[in-house]
Amino acid sequence: MRIRESAALALSAILLGTGSVAWAPSARADESAPTAAPAEFTIGQFNMAGGNEEHGPKGDEVPDALVRSVSDRSPAFMTLQETCRDWNERLQSQLPGYTVVFDPVTGGDGTTARCKHPSDFGNAVLFRNDLGFDAATAVAHPLESPGGYEQREMVCVRSEARKTVACSTHLTVGNDGPHLRARRHEASVAKGILANTYAGYTKVLGGDLNDDPLSGATDNFYHPNYQRGAHGESKEVDSPCGNEIKRGYWIWTFPPVYVYCRSGESTHSQGKIDYLFVPSAANVTWADATHATHSDHDPLWAGVVI
Q1: 108 falls within a domain
Q2: Predicted confidence (pLDDT) at residue 5 exceeds the cutoff of 60
Q3: The dihedral of CA 299, 142, 24, 7: what is its sign?
Q4: Is residue 249 packed enough to be buried (19+ CB in 10 Å), middle (13-18) or exposed (0-12)?
C-alpha cells in the first residue's frame, strides 16, 4: 500500500473519506507514555452488508440504525466490515464524540471494490474520542490474499493512553479448496501482524472471518487451550464457556451433548462467522449477538475489562 508523504494528508483522507488509510507512525508504543488503568467497556463487531444485494442498495437507513445502537450502548469502539464510504461519512456526522477510520479494499481486478450502491466498499473502526484512540495511527495491513481474489486487509487503530489496538478484518468467502486456502493464509498473516507489529499492546480483533469456530482459519486466533488445533493467543467473547479457555464440556441430556468452547451464538444464516477476539487474560463480563434489520449479519456486543 502506497505510503503518504505526510501525516496531515493521511489524516485528511481518513477523516474526510477522500482516500485510503496509508500512513501511520511507528506501531511501537512510546514507553514513557502513561497507561490508563483497566476499566470495563462495551465493544462491538458488525458486518453492515454493503455488498449484499438486499441491504447494500439501501440509503441512510442503514447507518442511521447503527447510529441508534451506538448512541444507546456508547461502545469504546466497533469493528465494521462491508461498510461503505458514504455510510461512514454519515456515521461520522451523526455521532459526536466518535471518529470513523475507513479504508476501501481492492477488488480482484485491481480496482477499488464498490458497494451495491455508488460508494467505495471496505472495512472500518469506529471509536470514542475520549479514550486516546488516534486516527493518525490507523494502518490498513494487507493480508496478502492469493489467487486473484479481492485483496483482504486488516485495519487497525491504536490508543497509546490505554496501550490498546483495535483491528477490523474481513476474510475471503467461499468453501472450495482455493478459497479455504486463501482464508487460512489471510488469517495467518493477520496473526503475525498482531503478534509482531503490536507486541505489548492489548489487542482486540473483530471481524467477519467467513468460517466456523472450529476451522483452520480461526485456529490462528483461538488460544491453544481451546484445543482442536488452536494456536493463537486470544479468547473469543461469545464462547459458551465464558472466560474459561478449555476444549469444552458435556451436557448430560439423553443423548449427551458435547459443547465446544470454540463456538457461540449464530451471527449469520451460516452460523457463527463473526468474532471479537480479546486477550486471553481479559475479563469478559457479558456478550450477546443481537439482531439487525438492515444486514444479513447480527451485531456482536460484549463487555470487556481492558
Answers
A1: yes
A2: no
A3: negative
A4: middle
User: The dihedral of CA 265, 221, 51, 136: what is its sign?
Assistant: positive
- DSSP letters along 87-127, please? HHHHHHHH-TTEEEEEEEPBPTTSSBPB-SSSSBEEEEEEE
pTM: 0.90
DSSP tally for the chain: helices H, then strands E: 4, 14
CATH code for the domain in which residue 40 is found: 3.60.10.10
DSSP 215: S
Closest CA to 101 of 120, 84, 131, 126: 126
CB-side neighbour CA atoms (13 Å) of 137 = 24
186-236 residue pLDDT tens: 999 999 999 999 999 999 999 999 999 999 999 999 999 999 999 999 999
37 found inside a domain: yes
**Number of domains comprising the chain:** 1
Predicted confidence at residue 109, as pLDDT, reads 87
Identity of the amino acid at 233: E
C-alpha cell belonging to residue 4: 503518504
Domain interval for residue 229: 7-305
